[in-house]
Amino acid sequence: MSEQPAPIDPSATQTAAQAVAKLAEEHAAGLYTLGLRFCGDPAKAEDLVQEVFLNALKGWSGFDGRSDPKTWLYTIAARACQRMHRTRSGEPSSIGSLDALLPFDEPLVARVEDGGPLGEQVRREARERLEASIVGLPEDFRVPLVLKEIAGFSVPEVAQILGLEEGTVRSRVHRARLKLRKAIEGALPKGEAPPPAYPEQTCMDLLNAKQSALDRGVPFDTRVVCERCRSVFETLDLTREICRDLAAGQLPEGVRERLAAKLA
Questions:
Q1: Is 0.70 topped by the overall pTM?
Q2: DSSP secondary structure string, 152-207?
Q3: What is the pLDDT of residues 182-225, one digit of tens each?
Q4: Are 29 and 18 in contact (CB under 8 A)?
Q5: Domains of the chain with bracketed CATH
């Protein structure tokens, strides 16, 4: 669940410009992060931030104050992302099969060291791989993933923002997580894994349960899983951790001032 900001009363004495400027103070950095992860381009991310708040200013009279202002802003942002997006040459239209994203038949599996943080170089490479993988996701997977894992919305909130069924959002986020997990796996040390301890369907059932736990932000008991499943689950946890780190981005110098000038 995303953090709930203080309620905003559109009928209060503040002007629309003042109200939207206050929202910009609270949410511009997060929206810039959304744009950066969606577009992979700082200039386009700034364009997105400006478009969101200019549209919020134009539509202020239609905001009744009963909904979460953050959800309202990110709904505007999602629509703006779709308008701004043009399919890039070579952009994939699909995310790949589950078999290609999971190490069922691979002799080596990734290791996430217990008892301490990853080495600085390994973590840096894993983050770089994850950032590149986000930008390389098909749009239908990228936007739900960024809203869920970086912006911090729940699955129902993402469904509301995008106008999709919750099951569709959940499926796309799950597949996108596995794609990012596969990307960071290449930065991690690997070791030999014993043959699978369970039938493949059992591992898939455990994976679905793990994904559900990630959706809800609750712990998952890994004591009963096999070595290969443990590798997948640990790298999924690392993927979530790096995504949370990406959410802490700041507005570059000058962006807030240029936005304030646009809203004045």
A1: yes
A2: ---HHHHHHHHT--HHHHHHHHHHHHHHHHHHHHTTS-EEE-PSPSS-HHHHHHHH
A3: 999 999 998 888 888 888 899 999 999 999 999 999 999 988 88
A4: no
A5: 16-89+250-263 (1.10.1740.10), 98-246 (1.10.10.10)
